[in-house]
């Protein structure tokens, strides 16, 4: 999960000229937050905790405005 987060941050740094540091991306980019929440919800979903996964996904949507179903497969290195 953390390796995927590092790849997501690296992708943002490569594709967004306004991004100046990995710390800035981690703290200030809601797309990165949404991907991290999605990965947690995805693990919960496939671990059989579907209701908890939906709750985590919903909280992520409230916080970031970005929604993804916990069963969706999103590879590492994504940029939202």
Features:
80 residues; mainly alpha; serine acetyltransferase, domain 1; 4 helices; 66% helix; 0% strand; elongated
Please characterize this protein's 3D structure.
With 80 residues, the protein is mostly helical. The chain has a single domain, classed as serine acetyltransferase, domain 1. Helices cover 66% and strands 0% of the residues. It has 4 helices and no strands. α3 packs antiparallel against α4. It is elongated. The relative contact order is 0.22.
How does the SSE layout of this entry go?
Blueprint: H1 2-15, H2 22-28, H3 30-46, H4 50-64
Helix pairs in contact: 3-4
Structural class: mainly alpha
> In sequence order, what are the helices and strands, one letter per element?
HHHH
Helicity, as a percent range? 55-70%
Give the terminus-to-terminus CA distance. Answer: 17 Å
Q: Any idea what the shape is?
A: elongated
CATH topology heading: serine acetyltransferase, domain 1
CATH top level class name:
Mainly Alpha
The number of distinct β-strands equals: 0
Average of pLDDT: 93
Largest sheet: none
Question: Spans with pLDDT under 50 lasting ≥5 residues?
Answer: none
Give the full name of the CATH homologous superfamily: serine acetyltransferase, domain 1
Counted by DSSP, the helix tally is 4
What count of structural domains?
A: 1
CATH architecture: Orthogonal Bundle
Strand content: under 5%
Rounded to the nearest angstrom, the radius of gyration is 13 Å
């Amino acid at each position: 999960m953390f390796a995927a987060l590092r790849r997501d941050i690296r992708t943002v740094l490569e594709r967004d000229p306004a991004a100046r540091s990995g710390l800035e991306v981690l703290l200030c980019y809601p797309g990165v937050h949404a991907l991290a929440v999605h990965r947690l919800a995805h693990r919960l979903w496939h671990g059989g905790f579907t209701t908890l996964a939906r709750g985590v996904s919903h909280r992520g949507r409230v916080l970031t405005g970005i929604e993804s179903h916990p069963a969706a497969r999103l590879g590492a290195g994504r940029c939202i």
